Amino acid sequence: MLVSPSSSHHRQMQVLYPEHLMSSTFDPNGEDDMDTDAGSVASGPSYCFAPSVVTSATSHDWEMRSASPAPSVYSMTSSLRAASYRHEFGRGINNYSEVYRLPADDEEFERLDRQHLMFMEVMGKYPACLPEVLADDTPGVTKTCVDLGCGSGSWILDVARDFPYCSAVAVDLVPMQDVNMPPNCRSEVDDINLGLQHFYGAFNVAHARLVSSGIRDYKGLIDEMVQTLRSRGLIQLVEFDFRVYDADKLPIMPSRLEEETPWLARWMNVVNIAVEQRGGEPDAANHLHRWVSEHPLLEEPVYREFWFQTGPWKKGDDPSTARDNRIGAMMRDDILAFLKSGRPLLLSNDLDISVVDELESNAERELLEASASTYIRVQNVYARRKAY
Predict the structure, then answer these.
(1) Which of 56, 105, 172, 227 would suit a FRET pair with 94, their CA atoms being 20 to 30 Å apart?
(2) Per-residue confidence (pLDDT) for residue 16, from 0 to 100
(3) How would DSSP label each residue in 277-294?
(4) Does residue 137 come out as left (phi exceeding 0), alpha (psi in the -120 to 50 range) or beta?
(5) 15: part of which helix (H) or strand (E)?
(6) Can you say whether residue 48 is alpha, beta or left, with left for phi > 0 and alpha for psi between -120 and 50 degrees?
(7) Which residues contact 374 (CB under 8 A, 6 or more apart)?
(8) Low-confidence ranges of the chain (pLDDT < 50)
(9) Looking only at Cα atoms, what is the longest distance across the chain?
(10) Sign (positive/negative) of CA torsion 125, 127, 132, 133?
């Protein structure tokens, strides 16, 4: 997840410190006129996507963006929180970006918290070099870390607690809502599509995970992240490509015959199209390694890929299979929740509700029955900024 004003190239950045959070009564999961699918979907059938709806708020060129003003501190008032959200198709959606259309409500944050635990078990908590990068080893210098598109904040909150002497910054389109935010962590509401000039040279670690659906220019984002790094700083990226892979770990593309295509793959291919039409880069994951390896200011790139079963479909009871199936069950539960999260994206792109319902219900049944031997591929790249 990635605030941009609706009609200006200038950004207003909201900086929220722990004592300001959770002080309002606004409920991002509350009811309003757009709270249900029926209340949100225009009448009449539609079987194709609407044209791209990228607005001028996030479509101007990198060099056209004005430098960010100095951060201002706001209390998290009811009106400020209300300005961050709107309700569509029964879910709370950020009120600033027309590119990122996944929910930003409690249901989604709970999904992301569970997903974080799964990723930690499979991928490890941090890159091997992160403790060295954030070590409190330079007198008078506070080490710093930023999480761009932080979502529920699981990753950056871990950093703030594990490295209490560092300064941790969580950036997203909506304020982070953890009532137990550590004192060394702050939440900033901002649209990273508008550039990171106000952060140049500020961080020892820059992290982004699963943000590609809300990023217009991912290669440009990498360059911006690199510019925020101090000498020998660490950039860490984790993405997936909005595809489902078969048992041979080949992508199941829309060109396959429909009768041979698992329902989850059909649903994911539709999501892939919707993300692209909104202005995101669903296939950014497949370019991360090259973009990072070829960046002139980065060195020591490390590439890793992880194959997650979409359910506990493997046969056998040996320890390795049992672990794979246990992780597969966790990924299945994550995808089941993601099916619900995808509704605002699909329905707001004018896909007919009957089509969305059919795809979702059949994919859900397929997952619960573990009837398709399929994978999700997650790719991770990290590297160090060259000394300067």
Answers:
(1) 227
(2) 53
(3) HHT--TTGGGGHHHHHHT
(4) alpha
(5) strand 14-16
(6) beta
(7) 244, 245, 246, 247, 252, 262, 264, 265, 309, 310
(8) 1-10, 12, 19-26, 31-35, 38-76
(9) 66
(10) negative
